[in-house]
Amino acid sequence: MKNKYNQKGFSLIEILGVALVLVIIFLLSIPIVLNIIKYSKKEAFKNSASNVLEAVSYYIAENKFTTITESGIKIEEISDLKIKNNNFEKGLIIKNKNNKLEIVYLIQGDYCAKGTIDKLKVSDKGCGYLDETKPSIASLSIIAATNNSIKVLASGYDEESKIIKYEFSIDSKKYVTNDNKQNATYLFENLESGEHTFSLIVTNEAGLKTKSEEYTFNTFDIKNINCKINTSSISSYKTVTCEYPTDENYIYQYATKNNDENLNYENIVLTNNTYEFKFENKDILYTRVLYNNEVIAQTSVNINNIDNILNEATPKLDENMIPVIYDENKNCWLKADPKTIYWDYQNKKWANAVVVKEKAASNNESHSREYYLSDVAINQPIYEADILAFYVWIPRFAYKIWNVNSVENNKNEEQQIDIIFQKTNEYLNGMTDDLINNGNYYTHPAFVFGDKDISGFWISKFQTSLSSDEECYKNPNISNCNKSSGVDIYSIPNVKPINYISISSAYILSKNMNIYGNIYGIKNTSNTHLIKNTQWGALTYLSHSIYGNDVIITNKSNITGGNNYKINVEQSTTGNIYGVYDTGGLLKEAVMGNYNNDPGLDYNNQSGFVGLNGSVEWPSSKYYDLYNGITYKSAILGDATGETNNWYDSQNVFVNGTNPFFIRGGNYNDINNLFNYDAYPGSALENVTFRFSFIFLYSYHT
């Protein structure tokens, strides 16, 4: 009989050996599995691209009057195109010379497809890797030289992909690479004095190469060109003064380059060995000195931060405001560099900024205000839950008057409003009555605050809301909502706006956003306030110009931003994510426009300002627009009442003794129109909310 205690098991060494074998098998299998996954994803994307071509073909067949123009058709422009799993970012389809549908590009993240349905190529590294042509330009120029060194500048260009590599050679020696892709230069040092030959090879994303011709450059004694940009701030133009070495036999030249074109030098004549260049657009200045047709000195200067549209009415930031731009690929806001231009009004991208919470929440996406204000955060995402308020910049402008006398409705047809942006101390026909005539430009009154001229103002992007923890948010009524202290207000999307609040309470809450210890970090150097009627007018006129969304804007939901502002961009004043939301629809908005300094004296239905049972001091005159009549004939120029009376069948009820305060916009269940104006007593109503603004005091011009 065997003793059960004498039976043998596996030793520790045997177990470790088996484990080691399993680990090796696992490690060897990882690349195989990853390659299978990678291949499967590419094949799935390729099938999706084929589906796009089939869908476009079917779409054209079903829509007999649809043709593909020479410029092609973008899939995102075909609203009823049915494509399975259609989450492509963009795509362009053409008919090629063989009359076949061909994808020029179809992009989804890093995936790209090109070609016809029977010859389709895909890449998971971007479209550049599918390029089949070599770079078209490979050239060299000299930047600087000494008696034993030469610094050269490479130029490379490819129509379909990026240049990712520059290789330099001197005197037919082995090519060397500049690893800094942002700066295509190379410095050859420790050279013998005299003539040297150079050549260049540029490589595109697809790995295709183009070799330049040979260039001959000389070493020489050091001669410098010293150039200085005369302002480092954002302005409507920049001047650059360059000082040159002088000799009667020297020739002085310059060239500019704002894209990948070749340099074309022109001669200049110096004044006291200097020359001043003026730039009204972003560019690169190249300038050089020639002697006996040889370059003996050369330099280049990057000209940035030029905005020739706003005419110096550029955004002014409170020190705790964070400028933002929207990244469509990442579907989020990024911190913009405040020292650069982060707006493009010509393309309807108005300047946006946010204020954020002081401290980060306990998750990996949230950050503190200190982090967001640092340079480390530039071009990094801003966690939307950290944002307390979104703001949009309304730059100072003048507009061409077309209806100075507020003519009758049938003579006042809708039209695009002609505006021009202005410097802070610039007026156009706005100060003398004899010049206020149709056809003349008039400085909009929203850009005068008290006795000060301002370069613009920030307006909240969404209608005002409260924390979802507040009783007013959970159970809105006068008792819970009509408060002027003890609550913080926000301008954020996808929430219910505050209602049941009187205009005096809204005025106090807005005005107190900059008091000491406020949650926004706004300094008392910024003036915060409830928007005025003329500020609403300025927003309306800018929206109805070439710089805005020239359509009726509506929000049919009861949520700020239309419940999904990133998708519902047609509800914005720009038709894209950079505009102001909720101006037509959602709730009507109380604005500071008042008849005859009347606070509304009805005991049960009044504004809360000083008067019968009033408790809030009557505002200073700079915080409201005063009206002395009760019809649109008493309108203030620029307030979007008399001049635009009844545009798009808008509501037009003027302030009067019974209802002395203006409300703007429209209720989502009623007439939805940016041009609406109505009157009310200033009391706490269910269908009325408000919007706030602030002006950076240091933007004043006295």
How would you sum up this structure, described in words?
By secondary structure, this protein is of the alpha+beta class. The chain has six helices and 37 strands. A seven-stranded antiparallel sheet has the order 22-21-23-24-30-37-31. A five-stranded antiparallel sheet has the order 1-2-3-4-5, with helices on one face. Strands 8, 9, 11, 12 and 13 form a five-stranded antiparallel sheet that branches. Strand 4 (111-116) and strand 5 (119-123) form a beta hairpin. The model is unreliable at 429-433 (pLDDT under 50).
Which features characterize this protein?
702 residues, 28% strand, alpha+beta, seven-stranded antiparallel sheet
